[in-house]
Structures are given as C-alpha cells and as structure tokens.
Amino acid sequence: MVATVDGLVRLLQLERDGDVLRGAAPDTNLQRVFGGQVLGQALMAAGRDVPDGRAPHSLHGYFLRPGDPSTPIDYQVEVLRDGRSFSTRSVVARQHGRVIFQSTASFQVDEPGSIEHQDAMPDVPWPDDLPSFLRRPRASNNAVRGEWDALDVRYDDSADDGVRVWLRTAGALPDDPLLHAAVLAYASDLTLMAAIVARHDVRFGEPGVVAASLDHAMWFHRPVRVDDWLLHDQDSPSASGGRGIGRGRIFSRDGRLVATTVQEGLVRIRG
C-alpha cells in the first residue's frame, strides 16, 4: 500500500546491486503487482544513467506475466543508443528468474524553437468540487481502498463514453523531472482500463469479468509537475476479440497537453 507521497517516492527510488536495479515491494493487499508500479520503476531505471539534460519523451512497455506483489523486482538496463540528441534504453523486469515486463524508453535534449501545436483541453469541472475516484463505491471488495492514497484523484462523470479524472500527488514532490515523469507513469495506469468498459454495463470486480493490462505506451510532450492538478481525459476507440484500447490525453491545469497515453487490455466476459 502506497499511502503517502514519501512512500511513493521511496517505491520509485531503486537500489543498485551490481548490474541490477532493484525496486522495492510495497505493503499491499493487491493480488498482483500494480502495473503503474512497474511502469514507474522501469522509467526510473531507464533514466538512471542517461546523460544530463535529457528528459523522457516516450515509454513503451509490455506486461508479460503477473508480478508477485510480495517480492522486489529486478530491472536490467541495456544501453541501445546515446546520440547527439536522443538516448534509448531497454529495460527488462524480472521476478523469480522470469521476465514479467519489458520496455523501451527514449530521452531527448531540450530543443526549443521548433513547430508547436496541441489539442485544446476540454471544458470540464474543476477538481475542487468533484468526488474522489478512489473512494467511490465499487463492485470489487474493499481491499483496494487506501492502496493509492499517495494520489488525490477526482472523478468527473460528465464524460460521454469515456473517463475523466483530475489527479495529483497528495503532497509536494522533489524537483526531479525524471521522478515526476515516473510518478505520472505510475498514476496513468489507474484508469485506462476503466475507459475500455465505459461504453458497456460492465464493472471490474463483478463475477465473470476478467481484465488485465497487456501493454502501455506514453509520450511526454512538455515538462510536467505531478504535484499540481492534471486532467487525464480518456476514451476507447475500439474493443474486439477480448481486447480493448484505452487512450488518454493529460493536460496541466493551465491547459498544456503534457502527455498522451495508450493501453491495450484484456477484457473477457464469462458466463
């Protein structure tokens, strides 16, 4: 359970053991490792030895096996490229000698003065008057409550056939751009699967509903602070064959598009 911001920061601060970076296992009631934990830790591992002045701009990962929440995760990083503008890293996550997650992350030097455009932020209610997403009634049991108290997540139910949440950490974060990107990766995994079933009368935790994340991609467009409000505007363009796509746009409070997210998930309805 990551109940405090300090606990979330500690979860993402990996320890080096030879050629391996080790991510701690949180005290949790979850039956498998939360995907956001692996995403955040893998991004921190990828950025550990990147040359100064390079920020993450993309992260692509595959969830290959369910993770054991009681066991630390070992991350092996391979340097794929260090060019004049870009650095690319491959990260493999292992538990019990088996690969549970594999990702590629790319980093870029700041290049001001190029072309620029973005989608406009939708007109939505401000978070102060919205209910907590993580504490609203659920079909699943109460074991998940409190797991993500390090985050303040507010639910906007005005979205048509989608999911909108405002999110931020429940306290201030250190001034480390890589850490903010990793926390955003962690938080981005909370609701993308919910966007896939938003068009249907389906709730995770109901009997016969089987769901799991298959992959996750993020693009970081602009500098971001996750200890200030961010809007994650999500929808699902397609679901078929037992799989669905959730996609999201993350805006800062002042309307800047700071990141884009896409996740494919397994969704099966049995019985």
If classified by CATH, what would the architecture be? Beta Barrel
Largest sheet: 12 strands, antiparallel
Q: Average pLDDT across residues?
A: 92
Order of strands, main sheet, comes to 1-2-4-5-6-3-9-12-11-10-8-7
Helix count? 4
H/E topology pattern: HEEHEEEEEEHHEEEE
Chain-wise SSE layout:
Elements lengths: L4 H8 L2 E3 L2 E4 L11 H13 L6 E10 L9 E10 L3 E10 L2 E12 L41 E6 L5 E8 L7 H12 L3 H6 L11 E12 L9 E11 L2 E10 L4 E13 L2
Helix pairs in contact: 2-3
List keywords for this structure.
271 residues, Porin, 4 helices, 12-stranded antiparallel sheet, single chain, mainly beta
Give a verbal description of the structure.
The chain is mainly β and 271 residues long. The chain has one domain (5-110, 126-269): Acyl-CoA thioesterase, double hotdog domain (Porin), CATH 2.40.160. It has four helices and twelve strands, in the order αββαββββββααββββ. The chain has helices at residues 5-12, 35-47, 177-188, 192-197; strands at residues 15-17, 20-23, 54-63, 73-82, 86-95, 98-109, 151-156, 162-169, 209-220, 230-240, 243-252, 257-269. Strands 1-2-4-5-6-3-9-12-11-10-8-7 form a twelve-stranded antiparallel beta sheet.
Can you give me a brief rundown of this structure?
The chain is mainly β and 271 residues long. It has one domain: Acyl-CoA thioesterase, double hotdog domain (Porin, Beta Barrel), CATH 2.40.160. Helix content is 14%, strand content 40%.
